[in-house]
Amino acid sequence: MEALRVFLNQTPSKGIQEYFDQRKIVYPTDTPWDDFLVLNLHLQKMMTTLPEARRVELNEECQRINRMASVNGQQALEAVVKDWSKFSSLEDQFHRSQWFFDYEPQTFLHAESLLCFHECRGRSRRWSRFGSEAKTSEPQIQKRKETFRDSVQSSLRGGDHTRVEVFSHHQHPERIQLNILREQLTISEQSFSDSGELVMSQRKPVFEFIILFDIKTGQFEITAGRADERRLLAEIFARDVLNVKNIQDITQCEYNLSSLMGERNFQLGDDITDVKVIELGILSPSFGIVESFRLDTDAQKWGNLYRQLNRRYGNYNPLAQQAEIKHAHLRVCFRPNRHHPKGKKFTFKISMKNCDLPVGAEHPEETLIRAHYLKLWGLEEETPSWMLG
């Protein structure tokens, strides 16, 4: 019962009382709510008096609550909550997670699905990205979701029920998320009854697809399922929701470094405060070798890498010799927040075929750069592998 133990140990006493009250768990009137050290021992002992089945149920709930109390879970909650004043008024991350689990379960579910999305994002086995020229809005998507649901129901194999949820992200209203819940076929499995007998039980599991659509760019991403299922879902989404005939599968891409041949500005957003080129690997046509040029400490005081090269080499600047950039190192800085009080800063390497930015829920900023900003900065070239229409 590790998750239950962690929840009782980390959550403020007010949150624990709310959690118990919601589940009608009776606790002694002399429970020492104001004494942190004594309270934890008291609660752990109290849990041993509950039936085993009840403790298992609570432990499963606490697994979900604890997961959303992590840094990435809190960022997902922040993205979808509408009542920011309530969110910020709660005591800490465990209290916020518990409160939304109990009092706004739909918001909590949306945040869970967003966290799952980020865990899959950028990993091609469970993620695909598509481009379109669609021009639509959240109200129009809401209006078409029933037609979309019916098409998914009739096209994707499974059970008799399908549900589609549509909502926008509070922090980024241009991003519309669709959760598609698809009932699967009945499966039988062994389980224990309350009396300890081994019995066969049946259930119909629910599989979830997630679509994240960007109104500004017309691009959308789909996570979960097989590649052929995601492509079929993309066809249905394009036809029934976006009302477009042509979309491109742009999951695979190459990188274009020609835009780094000269000094330039990078478009900022999503709390990004600065982007700087700190190293270039340049192929000289004269020597046929790749030489790396790096921004040194002194150069940072008076300019950037391009000015450093001009000052040092003048007319022999390697960038002026019809050279080709083979790789580059960029540094991205983020504004300080509650999770990173000093601001987050990281450096990544990009070449024509590869980018070493990690992806996944444990790297939300890096995943955002790779999935959205590389194309915005002109560093990513889409190589369509499949086209509808």
Could you describe the 3D structure shown?
This protein has 389 residues and is of the alpha+beta class. It has three domains: 102 residues, no CATH class; 126 residues, no CATH class; 129 residues, no CATH class. Helices cover 39% and strands 24% of the residues. It contains 13 helices and 15 strands. It has a seven-stranded antiparallel beta sheet, sandwiched between helices. It has a four-stranded antiparallel beta sheet with strand order 11-10-12-13, with no helix packed on it. Strands 4-5 form a two-stranded antiparallel ribbon. Helix 5 crosses helix 8 and helix 7 packs across helix 8. The protein is globular. The C terminus is likely disordered.
Sheet with most strands: 7 strands, antiparallel
Strand content: 15-25%
The SSE string, one letter per element, is HHHHHHHHEHEEEEEEHEEEEHHEEHEE
Secondary-structure content class: alpha+beta
**Fraction of helical residues:** 25-40%
The total number of structural domains is 3
Spans of at least 5 consecutive residues with low confidence: 384-389
Computed Rg = 26 Å
| Average pLDDT for all residues | 83
Shape: globular
Count of helix runs: 13
Q: How far is the first residue's CA from the last residue's CA?
A: 53 Å
Total number of strands: 15
Strand order of the largest sheet: 2-3-6-7-1-8-15
Write the layout of secondary structure elements.
Layout: H1 2-10, H2 13-22, H3 36-47, H4 52-68, H5 71-80, H6 84-89, H7 93-103, H8 105-120, E1 127-131, H9 138-155, E2 162-168, E3 175-183, E4 187-192, E5 198-203, E6 206-214, E7 220-223, H10 227-242, E8 247-249, E9 253-255, E10 272-283, E11 290-294, H11 299-302, H12 305-313, E12 324-334, E13 345-351, H13 364-376, E14 380-382, E15 386-388
Antiparallel strand pairs: 1-7, 1-8, 2-3, 3-6, 4-5, 6-7, 8-15, 9-14, 10-11, 10-12, 12-13
Helix pairs in contact: 1-4, 2-7, 5-8, 7-8, 9-10
